[in-house]
Amino acid sequence: MKGMISFVLAVLLCGIALAEIPQVISYQGKVTDASGNPIANDTYTMGFRIYDALSGGTQLWDSGDCSIAVAGGVFSVLLGESPQPLLGLDFSQEYWLEVVVGGDTQSPRVKMGSVGYAYMASGLVAGTEVSGSVTSGTYAAIKGTNAATTGIVYGLCGLSSSTAGRGVAGFSTASAGLCSGVYGQCTSTGGRGVEGYAQSSTGPNFGVYGSSPSSGGTGVYGLAYSSVGATRGVTGIVPSSSGRGVCGEATATGGDTYGVYGTSASSGGTGICGEALATSGGARGVVGLSSATGGTGVRGEALATNGYTKGVYGSSRSTAGVGVHGQTWATTGTTRAVVGTNASVEGTAISGYSGVHSGTNYGVVGECLSPDGNGIYGINSATMGYAGAIHGLAMSSAGRGVSGECNGTAGIGVVGWAGATTGSTNGVFGYSASSAGAGVVGQAAATTGQPHGVYGAASSTGGRGVTGVATATSGTTQGGYFESYSTSGTGVYGYATAASGTTSGVYGQTSSTTGRGTVGWATAGTGTGRGVYGRSDSPSGYGVYYQGGLAGSGTKSCVVRTSKGPTLMYCQESPENWFEDFGEATLVDGRCHIELDPLFLETVTVDELNPMHVFIQPYDQGAVGVVVHRSSTSFDVVNLSDGSANGAFSYRVVAKRQGFEAKRLDVCEAARDDSFLYPELREKEQAELAAEEARHGEERTRRDEERVRMEEERAVSSQERAFVQPPQISAN
């Protein structure tokens, strides 16, 4: 049947308007035959399709076959009414309707318009309240769509000029469930899921304010679906010098509440990213407040199980800026400026990264005013693996991964505590990849008392209080470097408090074939300096104990007390490794048999290749003119001229040390660089020493300047704290 549509009336479908607004489109038309006469009265099979173009284009919706009554050629239908499928169109663009009557497609298509409910739903009338509701499905009560793919476009835009107003306020009244006060979504790589802009430059205004009374609800929830690009779930910007880009406040007085909660599923994403664009003043990228006794001011959680994800990421581009700064206002109690927890066996509870390659920047800075508090406190709940409670990484050539400073007379700059009672745990682990870097640097600025630049404690029987590892395979690296300016100070002081066991005050180890486990160097050219000093208060202990060989280009001596004072007694040297024993005996009837001490024989080798040597010193005339007959365990002294002679004598027995029989005048390769043996190396050594001293001098100067700067900053910070109270935000 050939026909023609002569009249169409369309009313806007509004899926985000008031509950009483119809969710269908009313459509009416007239069908005539080829001669222009109305078709016969009857029920006809019709179909209705919606396209995005007058001709061609994409089909967006199809009603399917519908039985429609026609009278006088006129028919009416509600598009989207059951059993037809829901329209599901947001009407953010122009649409054309195509009608099929009895299998014949009518032409041309009809452009759809809007009247009635559509104007009220669009908010064209000033003061109109727009609301909507849905009872099922994934549809939104209110939805705004902007089809532009570039530019600063808005799906929904809320503006407030009031000093206490809200650009957008979302309130979720559900008392349970994963509800959202405000939900924003954006598919553009540079778009915003939700953007709020508070125009007032003063007052506690909010770019975006969301509140939810549900125990599992969300005050503000932003979701950026794009898996690439600099997308933002939520972005808050405020131009006020004391404003907040994004401010989250959990007012509940109990429970695991969050002032701000951010999640990122991307392997390189960020749970929460706050950026303060002001180049001066006390601007904050992110500020979170919680009034609950167990609440959290700011919490970030990265749910991805792999990749370099960040629960909370702080970044500062200022040469004196702070990536993340935690501050506790309480002056008593065990407060924490920053707390990090981690359950991954290779994860990091807190990671600070300072990307600036110059200046005195810090990956993480924590400050606490409480006498029992912690500037930074990290907890890693993993019971195994290479987990870190606090991890700091600084890219600056003069930066610090983790920097600790304490001005107290008995304070501690950095405290590392490995609570595990077994395993090779580390209280503090320092890592430096620089050829002249330091694994750990600690500085205690106090000039009196017993402060500690670095203090590490481990409760494990095999743990380390402090471990420093320099992994560079060349250069003058130091696993741990300690320096003392005091004339009676100690560069390295190790104290093992255990009263039993094989404890070590200082332990050094090297895996290099030419390395040094421990190096002590007294660089002063005069005086009684000690490169290494060891002391034991036990009468059976050892000030210095070594395993393996002992070699040196200087003298080996013992110090004894004489009337002259402490006097040196020098060791006798030999080209071979000998042990010797002494004794006295008496000839009886011209003979004497002597058995060597069995314990002495356990330490030496006596055989045909390594015979013992026996030296006789006669004390009486009868012991003169004797010979010695040796075996492997004894010797006989015989007077050859007088078989009845009697007389006293002493003997000295010398034998090769067991296991060192072949040692003789071996070359000591380790002493090739000994300037005491090779004076020609002294000039090079002195130049290197001067360069090292110059470097240390520059480092000391830099540290002194930094200390002065930090003291000035603390003075300014103290003044600010005297006048500035913690910000209070109304929950209205």
Q: Would you give an account of this structure?
A:
The chain is mainly beta. A hairpin with a 2-residue loop joins strand 7 (96-101) and strand 8 (104-105). Among the domains are: 4-121, Immunoglobulin-like (Sandwich); 159-300, no CATH class; 314-403, no CATH class; 405-472, no CATH class; 578-669. The longest helix is centred in the last third of the chain and has 42 residues, at 682-723. The model is unreliable at 5-19 and 122-126 (pLDDT under 50). It is built from three helices and 41 strands. The strands form 16 sheets. Strands 3, 4, 5, 7, 8 and 9 form a six-stranded antiparallel sheet that branches. Strands 35, 37, 38 and 41 form a four-stranded antiparallel sheet that branches. A three-stranded antiparallel sheet has the order 1-2-6, with no helix packed on it. It is elongated, with a radius of gyration of 44 Å.
Strand content: 25-35%
Q: Calculate the mean pLDDT score and round it.
A: 75
Overall outline: elongated
Which secondary-structure class do the elements indicate?
mainly beta
Number of strands: 41
Question: Helical segment tally?
Answer: 3
Q: What does the largest sheet look like?
A: 6 strands, antiparallel
Spans of at least 5 consecutive residues with low confidence: 5-19, 122-126
Kindly provide the radius of gyration, computed on alpha-carbon positions and rounded to a whole number of angstroms: 44 Å
How far apart are the termini?
66 Å
Helix content: under 10%
